[in-house]
Give the backbone structure.
Amino acid sequence: MIATFAGFDLMSTTTPLTRFLPSVAAIVAAAVLTPLPAFGILAAAVLMVLLAPRTFANDERGRLDTLYATLPISRRAVVVGRYVALIALYLTLAAVGTAAAVAVTLVQDQQVSLVQLGLVNLACLAFFLLVIAVQLPFFFAVGFVRARPMMYIPVIAGAGALWLAGRLGLQERIDLDALTALHPAALVALSALALAAAVTISAVIAARQYARRSL
Amino acid sequence: MTSTAISVRGLTHTQGAFRLDEVDLELPTGLVMGFVGPNGAGKTTTIRALLGMLQPDAGSVELLDGQRPGTAAVNARVGAVLDQPFLSPDWKVSSLHRHVGRFSPTWDDELFRSLLDRFDVARDSRIGTLSRGQGVKVSLAVALAHHPELLVLDEPTSGLDPVSRADLVDLLRDFMVDERHSVLFSTHITSDLDSLADLMLVIDSGRIEYSGTLDELREEFAMVHGTEQLSDEAASAILGLRRTGARFDGLIHTASTPLFGPTTVIDAATTDDVVVHLARRDDTRLHQEAS
């Protein structure tokens, strides 16, 4: 039922196409019009951070939480299905961004740096997953309208923390050598593990909150 | 043993100033229960609790022979039409099998399409463009298309014209041909229940005021009208007493009939009379306390 709900959620988010295609166009435009073609991947992450709360806005607009409560599907499946759908949608849009970046680089007759594309993809995926890991439990707990500030708070808080770290010179105290000393595969595996843990904990909290919510 | 479609015991739920107060409800399988009461009486809250949409403060709710409400297994056997449609305004009627039907292994697309035709709903319309009445019809078609055993209807006829209401009642009669089926039907339009309901549940201010058969309801209550001076005992026996000049009217329990003199007219009460006067009773009490 998780896959069924994820498929339903993907269809609901991407239709009508006239509302979804501008997002794809924006990603391609970011790759074409900015100095770095990899900006298309960053655009995909930013768009998805904004798109994720919109799925909850659509739920409230169509009273779909009530629909889910009457369907033969558990609330846990709704929660996990939404995480799966959002991650699948992000990966699709990130693939569009990556393809656009590769195409633009080739058209400009430059060398495609797979390492750079991989790092940008990893950083953007981490950014997207961390933001939804913070946002989604709030939206499941109280719905879109009451949790609306969570659309911006994680991004603002993250940016604020980075700014503060810069002001305090914290980046100079971090031992980057220790990180670079790791094998790239180990670094990717560690990052993947940390992100998977963050998303899993977030989904567990969201499922508990949604189970308690009056619809 | 008689099987039970709905069993609610001591259901209590507080929401702001409103309190649902120890509601009991028992619907045996194979029967239709009418659920009536004024606005804000607690019908929708009760229905949401028995669909598992809210967590009650106390009490128990069981559906279809002792199962917990709101689980996937129970929802597969229950159809619900609530006071407002719960389908995305962007969806086309013709695409509902893809949006909703995918969740139900028993979804019958042929039945769904035949219900849309019966209700005269254009399949290429978007949900957002439908009138309230058409929205209710689509919701009903969705609820029936997965062959539920229990239908829970919250004010389904309130947006419908008389022809559509009659058609809906006919449809429910067809549904009840199968003796495994049951219906809980909340409505303001009590005439819809006259030829359909086996049982009646009257709720007011979060409390169940009457539970029994429709015939017993008519036997239990009567309307009194008159101009005579009422004794204190007779006046206190009248529920929702209304005085207009020298005239009075109100609802009584038929057991109170001997309290009234020969000039008082006593008529059979309709379901509407019972709902109206039970709701007015609280106003009368407040008025009496104030004076």
Remarks:
- The mean pLDDT of chain A is 88.
- Residues 128 and 180 of chain A are 23 Å apart (CA to CA).
